[in-house]
Amino acid sequence: MARERSPASWLHSQTSVTRKMPVCHRILLLLWLVHFSSVYSDITDGNAEHLKREHSLIKPYQGVGTSSSSQWDFWGSTLVTSQYVRLTPDERSKQGSIWNTVPCYLKDWEMHVQFKIHGSGKKNLHGDGFAMWYTKERLHPGSVFGSSAKFHGLAIFIDTYPNDEAPDLVQEPLDKGTKKKKRSFPYISAMVSNGSLPYDHGKDGRSTELGGCSVEVRNKEHDTYLAIRYSKGRLTIMVDVDDRNDWKECIDFGGVRLPTGYFFGASAATGDLSDNHDIISMKMYQLMVEHTPEEDNQDWTKIEPSVSLLKSPKDNIDDPTGNFRSTPLTGWKVFLLLLCALLGIVVCAVVGAVVFQKRQERNKRFY
After folding, report:
1. What whole-number distance in Å separates Cα of residue 29 and Cα of residue 126?
2. Which long-range contacts (CB under 8 A, 24 or more apart) does 324-327 make?
3. What is the DSSP letter of 318?
4. Which residues partner with 62 through β-bridges?
5. Is the overall model pTM greater than 0.90, yes or no?
6. How far is CA 256 from the centre of its chain?
7. Which residues have a Cβ under 8 Å from the Cβ of 90 and sit 6 or more positions away?
8. How many CA atoms lie within 13 A of 115 on its CB side?
9. Per-residue pLDDT tens for 84-98?
10. What string of DSSP letters covers 38-93?
11. Residue 183 in 3-state DSSP?
12. d(CA 258, CA 104)
């Protein structure tokens, strides 16, 4: 999904202009390009040569069915049309899912999901949401957005209804003895599990989430997208839901270990409240990443799903967006740090030049 103009082509077109710039302007442009390239390195431009069709769900959804040659299988209330795959209709007590039948053996990958959540429910009167899965198990119905609460692998939850408390009182404790801070829904969160801990749907998975963000995704008139990237032990979740053709970071977390040979899927559920949960497309891209010889020789199918946590997920309570306090620097933060460093160097150079000039003038008076 080539959704943005390549920074490389932009740079080529600006070469002649750059040559005419003053040196200081060139330095600032270079810093901006460093930031720009770091943003684009987060999310692939969707080049067709990296698209893995055996793991992609694309209109008109050929290869979806229950035959032995099908690459996608579905269950429950799922309805496959020529324009979308509807996991649940806007009706009560429905569950549906769709699963890739081909295990994924890519070490580094990125999934782009185009989805649509819409219904007749007013504010806070809709639910429950849907989930994206990369798990050992497939087609295991359960209580968590239509799938099992216990799983091996990765789950991304797009939760549209707060189960923990009443909608107007959704609050999350910061620390003992302090006031509470609201946490708004819809809310996107991520969880990695080795099957030992279940997702607590009644508590919206707060005790096991890696991080998350609040995003308005319901009843949009434009396309809404979710990107899930896993590369060299780093999990990045980004969204494009504002019709600006621009990815925004939701979760960025290192120390994540996921095996190969698991299955991709999507599931959704409704309860007393409901929504249409539609998947328009799921596009899987292979990321071309170099690994060390030790990593290449490792049997990735035997890796245990895990996360190297510096803090417990329960410590993730001083940030209303759900992100860890120890999350790495984003592109904008790196750019601002570089800009401040450059300004500091310029100021020091100017001050040094002034001091040096005054000393020269003072020395001349002694001759």
Report:
1. 47
2. 324/210, 324/211, 324/253, 327/211, 327/252, 327/253
3. S
4. none
5. no
6. 14
7. 118, 119, 120, 121, 270, 274, 275, 276
8. 29
9. 999 999 999 999 999
10. HHHHHS----GGGB-GGG-B-TT-TTBSSSTT-SEEEEET-EE-SS-EEEE-SSSS
11. coil
12. 11
Q: What is the DSSP letter of 138?
A: -
> Please, are residues 205 and 157 in contact by the beta-carbon 8 Å criterion?
yes
How far is residue 280 from each of residues 74, 128, 195, 214, measured CA to CA in Å? Answer: 15, 19, 30, 22
Q: Which two tokens stand for residue 84?
A: 């979308």
Give residue-wise pLDDT tens across range 18-65. 445 555 555 555 555 544 444 444 456 555 559 999 999 999 998 898
Q: Which residues contact 149 (CB under 8 A, 6 or more apart)?
A: 142, 143, 198, 199, 200, 201
H or E segment to which residue 267 belongs: strand 263-269
Per-residue pLDDT, 32: 52
Q: What is the pLDDT of residues 133-153, one digit of tens each?
A: 999 999 999 999 999 999 999
CA distances from residue 202 to 128, 164, 292, 312 in whole angstroms, order as listed: 12, 6, 42, 20
Q: How far apart are CA 246 and CA 235, in angstroms?
A: 19
The values of phi and psi at residue 250, to 5°, are -110, -50
- ∠ CA 247-249-254, nearest 5°, is 135
CA distance linking residue 18 with residue 26, whole number of Å: 7
